[in-house]
Amino acid sequence: MSEPELKLVARRIRSFPDFPIPGVLFRDISPLLKDPDSFRASIRLLASHLKSTHSGKIDYIAGHKAGQHPDSRLGDPGTSR
What we know:
By secondary structure, the protein is an alpha+beta fold. The chain has a domain at 3-57. It has 3 helices and 2 strands; from the N terminus they run H-E-E-H-H. It has a two-stranded antiparallel ribbon. Helix 1 (3-11) crosses helix 3. The relative contact order is 0.13. InterPro entries: PRTase-like, UPRTase/APRTase.
């Protein structure tokens, strides 16, 4: 892993001890998501980690937008049926 990329990503993650309850360390990644360079670095680091731990057997990494169910037939979760 690239040390400069790790530092770039780490600088964009904020820690809040004892939030929301004592003993929990909450990590806020929203600054990371707002900074394109840090976000790209985090994706590269994740891909590198997965390739090295899974012997290069990963072809794709996929995701979906937060708040949307992957099955589009279900519609918007905020609407009633």
